[in-house]
Amino acid sequence: PCPIPVIAIDGPSASGKGTVAQRVATTLGYHYLDSGAIYRIAALAALKQGIDWQDEMALAEMATHLDIRFAAGEIYLNGDIITEAVRTEDISRGASEVAVHPALRAALLDLQKSFRKAPGLVADGRDMATVVFPDAGTKIFLTASAEIRAERRYKQLMEKGIHANLADILQDLQARDARDSQRSVAPLQKSENARLLETSHLSIDQAVNAILDYSRANTGKQVL
Ligand code: CDP
Ligand code: CDP
C-alpha cells in the first residue's frame, strides 16, 4: 500500500512556515501539524508544573502524559485554551531550551507521527524532513534573511496590538536560530534532498504556489 503522503516544511523562526504550511494543507485538504506548538506546550506545561527547562528526565516523563488537543484553531492543555499563552517571547525561548533535550524529543515523536492520516499531512518545524517524517515525499526548507524575518515578526506583533522593538526581536530570533542549529540532536538543517525555498522576496501566495507546484511535479515522479 502507498504510504500516506507528507509535505515536510522546515526552516528558521518567522520564515513563514506556519502561514504557508496551513495554506498548502487547506488547498490540498490535508491535515496540518504545527510541531513547534508541541515544544511550546511542553515548555508551558513544565512551567505550570514547576519543572525546570533544564531537567531532561522530568521533562521526558511529563511528556508521556500530556493531555493536548488541537481543535478549530485552538490549542488545549488539560482542557484549558492556551493558544495565546504559548506564543509569548518567554515561551518561544522556553520551547527552544526544552527542545535541546534528546529524551524529551524522543518522548514527543509518536505524538507527532500520529498526525499522519489520510488523505495526507503538511507538517512544519525544524526536523520534519530529517527525523519525524524522513520518508516524506516532498521536503521543503523555507528560509529568509534574519532581517526580513525580524520585520515579519514585528509586523505580526503590531497587528496584534503588541508593542515590540525590532532590534530586540532580531536579537531573540538570532539567539534562537543559533540554539536550534547548534544543538546536537535534530538540529535545524536543510535535509540533503529538500528543496530550498528562499522567501525574502516572495509573497505568501508565491511561496504557497511554489510548494504546490514542486509537490505535484515531485509526486508525479515518485515511484511508490
Ligand atoms: O511559522 P513561522 O514562524 O516560520 O512563520 P509565520 O508565523 O508563518 O510567519 C511570520 C509572518 O510573516 C506572518 O505574519 C506572515 O504573514 C508573514 N509572511 C510574509 O510576510 N511573507 C511570506 N512570504 C511569508 C510569511
Ligand atoms: O514560529 P517559530 O518558528 O518562531 O517557532 P516554532 O516553530 O513554534 O518553534 C518553537 C521552538 O521549538 C523552536 O525554536 C525550536 O527550538 C523548537 N522546535 C523544534 O525543536 N523542533 C521542531 N520540529 C519544531 C520546533
UniProtKB/TrEMBL annotation:
CDD domains: CMPK (cd02020). ATP binds at residues 11-19. Residues 7-215 form the Cytidylate kinase domain. InterPro entries: Cytidylate_kin, Cytidylate_kinase_dom, P-loop_NTPase. It is found in: Cytoplasm. One of its GO terms (molecular function) is kinase activity. Its EC number is 2.7.4.25. Pfam families: Cytidylate_kin (PF02224). PANTHER family: CYTIDYLATE KINASE, CYTIDYLATE KINASE/PANTOATE-BETA-ALANINE LIGASE. HAMAP family: Cytidyl_kinase_type1 (MF_00238). This is Cytidylate kinase. The gene is cmk.
